[in-house]
Structure formats: structure tokens, C-alpha cells
Design goal:
Number of helices: 10
Order of helices and strands: EEEHEHEHEHHEEEHEHEHEHH
Oligomer: single chain
Shape: globular
Strand content: 25-35%
Largest sheet: 8 strands, parallel, barrel
Strand order of the largest sheet: 1-4-5-6-7-10-11-12
Length: 258
């Protein structure tokens, strides 16, 4: 059995580390490069860097920040935001990332998933899904894909999109619940489990982690392969080691930091 992974997300706007609640009320909370270095030294398994306004601003990702983060960490590091073409992906990988996260651009042009997978391998392509619960009953799963940092509804069913993303060549899926994002009240377990039971590739739970117990729930009841945290580490509520030790004590296979 593969070890479960602890991942931290660095949401970056204008070169600064920021955090929001349900994708609004975004606050500047520091320097992403120093945070990346700190988490790497603490034993984090993986980092995700999101340029959160690149798609909505119709611009490319800030490669200088990607390069600086990549110089500071020696763990898997994935990057998303504003990646529209294979050439965009290539630039990010050449800047030091190991994976690319495709979100808004993949919805607009699903073929970019296959193109990136063909060019760099499925292990380098992550489908990042921003999802909202849909109460109208218009979607089979009850969950809708949204884009542009949660600003645009798509009418796409989350389960159908996960299946298609895997078929197109995504090697991993991040399931980010906008309803839970930044609330510290726990992951959206129903959504995460539905996706995990639908696809045969690793699934990362994202949005809502506030206590180590929440990660345990996502990795067991939610059937996720990894859990992504932000506020728990950014605000100093927990350390990488304390989270990992809790999960190990609960019987999960996880790489401890010593």
C-alpha cells in the first residue's frame, strides 16, 4: 500500500502568499518562497503552487516565483494557474516544477490534457477541479465544475469531468471544494469519495482542512490518496510533524519526518 501524502497549497497573488475563504476575502499572509522552504525543511511530502488570478486576469503564470520556489525545495512541486497550452506547461516544468495543474484551460480545451500527457507523461499532469454543490438537481452527481477561480459556472457534472479527465490522460486529480475552502470545518467527504470511487488514479482532497482529524477522515472515509492543507500550516495552528504523527498514530501509512 502506498503511503498517504501530506501536501500544502501555496495560493499566490501578485507574488504574495494569500488565503481566502470560499475563494473570497483573500488576505495577504506572507512570502510564498519562505513558506515553501519552511514546509520543505519540516518534512512536507509535496507542494502545490497556484497563481490564483492568472486565468481570470488572462495572463501567464509568474515564472520568476516558480523558479525561486523550485530552488528552495527538493520535494515534488506542482504548479497551476494560467496554463493554457503545452508550451505554457513546458515553461513551468523547465522552471523547476515536476507537475502541472490544469483547471480552467482544461475545461475550455480538454485536448490540452492529452497533449500535455503525451508531451510530458501522465505522471506530470494533474487535473485540478474546483467544485460547488448544486442544489437544483440539474446535475447527476449534485456537484458542478466552476472555473476562473470560482467565478464562472460551467454546467459540467463533477463526476463526468473526473472520468473524462482520466480518460484524456490526467495522472492525478485535485478535488477542491469551494464550499469547504478555508472554513477549517473539514473536507467535503461525499464529493471526495465519489470522485475516488469513480477514477483509478490518485485523488487529492482539498478545501476545509482545519484539524488532523479532518485529514484522517479524508484519507479514510473520503478514500483520498493525499490531503492538501493551507490554513492549518500558514497560520501556525499545526506543524507538518504534528499532523503526520497524528495520522501515523491512527494507523495510516505515512512518511514520518523523524
Amino acid at each position: 500500500m502506498l503511503s498517504k501524502r501530506l501536501i500544502s497549497c501555496l495560493d499566490v497573488r501578485d507574488g504574495r502568499l494569500v488565503k481566502s475563504v470560499r475563494f473570497v476575502n483573500t488576505k495577504d499572509i506572507g512570502d510564498p518562497v519562505s513558506a515553501a522552504r519552511r514546509y520543505y525543511e519540516a518534512g512536507l511530502d509535496e507542494l502545490v503552487f497556484y497563481d490564483i488570478t492568472a486565468s481570470s486576469d488572462q495572463r501567464g503564470i509568474m515564472l520568476d516565483v516558480v523558479e525561486e520556489v523550485a530552488r528552495q525545495v527538493f520535494i515534488p512541486f506542482s504548479v497551476g494557474g494560467g496554463l493554457r497550452t503545452v508550451e505554457d506547461c513546458r515553461k513551468v516544468l523547465e522552471a523547476g516544477a515536476e507537475k502541472v495543474n490544469l483547471n480552467t484551460a482544461a475545461v475550455a480545451n480538454p485536448g490540452v490534457i492529452s497533449e500535455a500527457a503525451d508531451a510530458f507523461g501522465v505522471q506530470a499532469v494533474v487535473l485540478s477541479m474546483d467544485v460547488k454543490a448544486k442544489s437544483s438537481g440539474s446535475l447527476p452527481s449534485g456537484y458542478e465544475i466552476v472555473t476562473h477561480g470560482g467565478r464562472r459556472d460551467t454546467g459540467m457534472d463533477a463526476i463526468a469531468w473526473a472520468r473524462r479527465g482520466e480518460a484524456l490522460g490526467a495522472g492525478e486529480i485535485v478535488v477542491n471544494s469551494i464550499d469547504a475552502d478555508g472554513t477549517l470545518e473539514g473536507y467535503e467527504l461525499t464529493l471526495t469519495r465519489m470522485i475516488a470511487e469513480t477514477v483509478g488514479i490518485p485523488v487529492i482532497a482539498s478545501g476545509g482542512g482545519g484539524r488532523p482529524e479532518h485529514l484522517y477522515d479524508a484519507l479514510t472515509a473520503g478514500r483520498a490518496d493525499a490531503a492538501l492543507v493551507a490554513s492549518m500550516l500558514h497560520y501556525g495552528h499545526y506543524s507538518v510533524n504534528s499532523i503526520k504523527q497524528f495520522l501515523a498514530d491512527e494507523g495510516l501509512k505515512i512518511r514520518l519526518t523523524g
